[in-house]
Design a protein that fits this description.
Layout (H helix, E strand, L loop, with lengths): L22 E10 L2 E15 L7 E8 L2 E8 L5 E8 L29 H4 L7 H43 L1 H66 L9
Antiparallel strand pairs: 1-2, 1-5, 2-3, 3-4
């Protein structure tokens, strides 16, 4: 990609649409030290290159004292002040290099008498002063619209703030009532919680005898188990004695 494809240029409004074969007058600006002057160059356009890109240019051929002189001008150059079309040529080629081999009347290009309107459309352009005035008026209108919109937004914001302040002042007493009820509810909850705590504290006192009864039962069982253990040796001592064998 070339660098000129990344550059956006503004077209000169003093350069109309022209084609190869047209006789044009190019007013080129020349600077000499601190001075600047415009030098006209009249000739036939023999080619155009670049299309509508920023690198577009055209070549003009002029015969001076029997010698052919060709100059190439960039269309978007700031040094090109203006281009004036003097004649519309009737040709069937895009590049008229065959004129270099001709001289005299043979080097002339036929004039196009019936010029179509679509070729004249690019010639009559509005002056730059009118365009600048239109731009200024549009900018002024845009600024006025922005100021009006800001004023409307400020008025709406002030109305919203006033309504919110009134709403907050009206809703203040209910908030106090809600706060009072919120403070009373914990007191009621504490009063309801006190009887429950008292009941939980009294429950272990009633259950104490039941635990003692449970403790006494194992003691009775141990006593019952110990008694047979004492009587068993007495039963073994009372065994019948064996009689002596004859």
């Amino acid at each position: 990609m070339d660098a000129h494809h990344l550059i956006t240029v503004k077209k000169n409004r003093n350069i109309p649409e022209f084609r190869p074969g047209d006789t044009v007058q190019v007013n080129y600006r020349i600077t000499e030290g601190e001075r600047s002057r415009i030098q006209p160059f009249i000739g036939v356009v023999i080619r155009r290159t670049g299309g509508t890109s920023p690198a577009a240019c055209f070549t003009v051929r002029h015969i001076a004292k029997g010698f052919g002189v060709e100059r190439t001008f960039p269309i978007y150059s700031p040094q090109v002040d203006s281009v004036e079309i003097q004649r519309y040529g009737k040709v069937r080629r895009a590049k008229l290099f065959y004129l270099r081999e001709r001289s005299g009347r043979a080097a002339r290009v036929k004039e196009l008498t019936n010029v179509p309107e679509w070729r004249k459309a690019g010639v009559n352009l509005p002056p730059e002063e009118e365009v600048a005035e239109l731009q200024e008026t549009l900018e002024a209108e845009a600024v006025e619209e922005a100021v009006v919109e800001e004023a409307v937004v400020d008025a709406v914001e002030t109305e919203v703030e006033a309504t919110t302040e009134e709403a907050t002042t009206d809703e203040a007493p209910p908030e106090e009532a809600v706060a009072e009820t919120a403070t009373e509810e914990p007191v009621a909850e504490e009063a309801a919680a006190e009887p429950e705590e008292a009941a939980t504290e009294e429950a272990p006192v009633d259950e104490a005898p039941a635990e003692e009864a449970t403790t006494e039962e194992p003691a009775a069982e141990e006593a019952a188990e110990e008694k047979p253990a004492i009587e068993q040796p007495e039963a073994s001592e009372e065994k019948p004695k064996e009689e002596p064998k004859a």
